[in-house]
Amino acid sequence: MSECVIVTGMSGAGKTTALRAFEDEGYNCIDNLPVALIEKLTEIASFSKLALCIDIRSGDALDELEEMLDILKRREYSYKILFLDADDEILINRFKETRRAHPLGEEMRVGEVIALERKKMDFLRKKADYIVDTSRIKAKDLRSKIEEIFVQHKEFDNMFITILTFGYKHGIPQDADYVFDVRFLPNPFYIPELKPRSGLEKEVRGYVFSFEESQIFCDKVEEMIRYLVPMFIREDKNQLVIAIGCTGGRHRSVAMAEEIFDRLDDNREYGINIIHRDISR
């Protein structure tokens, strides 16, 4: 029986790197295959290993992909879907660095077009067998992850944790599963030399964690997350949003979230990313 992987995901998330990794592993790779040809290809192809990259470049035909995948399922054609994702901010920076145009065009700002793409690609993300976040991993690490999943066949969980910081004065995130309030911590905002900085800088982070209550709080949140994740995985939940808020979303919440992220990032059983929603406000 042939082995087919559909490589998809957000533009700029690393699909080209992924295809090259599959090619190195002996897969026959086809990039930007027209949706209408998928069924015909699976009927005539004798490839033992096949990797197809299908994404937003399919345009309006992408709407037909869900039905096409259902057809393959009914024919009992075996395939896996690998969805590559990354933070919006990371994707925006990658487009700026490479100066590439987004496949959906240049009529809108990059942030707006990424939001539109994410909406159009959502059905594939929900169908995905594997979701890999590439926000904080290098190309070689992505290649290693693909080898682990598709060559070494290591167990892989799709749990994806987002640590989201926010400012209460800008509103509580509606998509948060858990919300933690760190406004009880001493505020760097009132320290003149720290006020213009953010929790991403070591001076602010050092100040926040110079207090015992910060360290205790961080320990307990980390313990709770590590306790909950296996239970969510067991219940087939694949996303967990942990929101951490302070007054403005720039100092205490950011410093706390960065520390929690560093502690949890040692676990390769789940994807994890961090978003600072209000840090620039």
Describe what this molecule looks like in 3D:
With 281 residues, this protein is an alpha/beta fold. The chain folds into two domains: 3-150, 3-Layer(aba) Sandwich (Rossmann fold), CATH 3.40.50; 160-276, no CATH class. The protein is built from nine helices and nine strands. A five-stranded parallel sheet has the order 2-3-1-4-5, with helices on both faces. Strands 7-8-6-9 form a four-stranded parallel sheet, with helices on one face. Strand 2 (28-31), helix 2 and strand 3 form a beta-alpha-beta unit. Helix 1 (15-24) crosses helix 6, helix 4 (88-98) packs across helix 5 (110-127) and helix 8 (212-234) crosses helix 9. It is elongated and about 70 Å long. The relative contact order is 0.14. The mean pLDDT is 89. ATP binds at residues 9-16. Residues 4-151 form the RapZ-like N-terminal domain. It comes from Parasporobacterium paucivorans DSM 15970.
Helix and strand sequence: EHEHEHEHHEHEEHHEHE
**Count of the domains:** 2
Estimated radius of gyration: 21 Å
Helix content: 25-40%
Examine the coordinates and then state which fold CATH places here, giving the name of the CATH topology of the largest domain: Rossmann fold
Q: End-to-end distance, in Å?
A: 54 Å
Q: What top-tier CATH class of the largest domain fits best?
A: Alpha Beta
> What's the rounded overall pLDDT mean?
89
